[in-house]
Amino acid sequence: MRIYRKVGDRVELMALGRDLDLERGEYVLASDGNSTLVLQVIDVEYADVPGTLEETLRDLTSDTLGGLIRYDPMDVESHVRAIRDSRLVITKLRKVIGCPSISLPSRYGTKVRKASPHEIIGTQPRARETLVQIGEEVLIDPRDVEGSVTIITGRKESGKSHLAKLLATSLATIGYVVLVFDLNGEYVSLGVTKDGGQSYVNNRLITLSPGVDYLIPLSKVSQEVLADVMTFALGLPQTSLRELLRACRDARERGRLSFRSLHRVVSTAPMNESVRDAILNRLSTLEASGLFSDEATLDEKLLEALSTEDGRLVVLDMSCLSSLQRRILVEYVLSCLREKLFSGELDPLILFAEEAHLYLRETYWEDVVTRMRHIGISTVLITNQPDSIPALIYRQADNVFAFNLRNGSDIEHLARNLDVDAETLRAILPNLEKGQVLVWGKAFSYLPMTFRVLDSCLLTRGETRRRIVRKEGAATSG
Ligand SMILES: Nc1ncnc2c1ncn2[C@@H]1O[C@H](COP(=O)(O)OP(=O)(O)OP(=O)(O)O)[C@@H](O)[C@H]1O
Ligand SMILES: [Mg+2]
After folding, report:
1. Which of 165, 206, 392, 469 has the fewest C-beta atoms under 10 angstroms from its C-beta?
2. What's the rounded mean pLDDT across residues 26-47?
3. Homologous superfamily (CATH) for 128-214+305-452
């Protein structure tokens, strides 16, 4: 390959068709002496060689005449064809190493070669077991995910959850505490491999099904956490909240906090009737949610699971919960985590949230980029609707993994809010195959790149349920 021309940050390379082994999103390095251009392939086109139209037409007519034998005693025909069949590789200049960015390498002396993702990421040399492998040659430093906001987006069935599972299990294996809001109950089987054995994360996995094997002991819920659940999940107004908290204190002083004692105190305490009704209503909804228990001796299983010195993968299976139950649960969990992390009772953790817009309240989004990181919650958001995550989060996101997207407005949404140019996103995102991802961010030296996410031996659920199951690779017609 040779450098042909440069216009702004767009660099065009010439290549012979037969030599070309490049995919969109891959990198090439153009080195001339001490300076190197780091170029990302955006597209490949036919080179505009003068006379091609005429030559092609001549070829066509000779075909129709039964293939004329050309007189070519010097054997130049194959060279001429190679030139006519040459390609224009369109790349974006991402970085210049070793010389002022204004000086250009020579067109003829420059050596152009393909670069591996590993060379581009340039991960600091660390022991391999402390890194997380997500692609064949792609290892990321988990410290770039911790303390960060990470977004995984893409079309339906493009491979988002597959990557999230790989990340979550790998992080738990190397010592991180990971909590998953599992919307579809697809992380619960990660302890088992596809062939039925125990997976590498088996001894670190704890799954909790709220309302079934995990009940929240009401007596252990603090005033602040109860206030958050009542206000944000059940919409209790501030005036009523004050009365409720007073009733809680009374109930605790008289013995212990239970739904029955709370009902009794609220029903008998002097207060405005509409306030009383509002509180009793919310208390009934909370009790009917089936997520809480009056049992005083019950342990708080979630907090127990998260309090560990070792790595742990805690999955909250929300697949059987209604949307109201989900909102109550998530409000409780987040409020509780905030309290315990703030007081130092819990160590920092990484939260994986699938389709978070279905259960997170509006104001939480600001918390994600402002307060959450500081108290020790790193967030990984996974969605197939890029515009369900507010622009604010994209602008502050530290890492973005974008799988295949075909919808123009989804691509434009990313283009408006990410630090990756629109031309790159438009060229690469619609052409990604299942499992292929375009990444950008702290874990990748802020250079956009594409690669295929590793397959895994884990048993994963979450496939689309179908009446007629089509075998992979089976012919669709004929
Ligand atoms: N890199 C990969 N290697 C092997 N299989 C993969 C890969 N990525 C995805 N798959 C498989 O493709 C299927 C769909 O993947 P996945 O569940 O991750 O999609 P998704 O983007 O989360 O879809 P949805 O939006 O429906 O949740 C799964 O069966 C998964 O195992
Ligand atoms: Mg999914």
Report:
1. 469
2. 89
3. P-loop containing nucleotide triphosphate hydrolases (3.40.50.300)
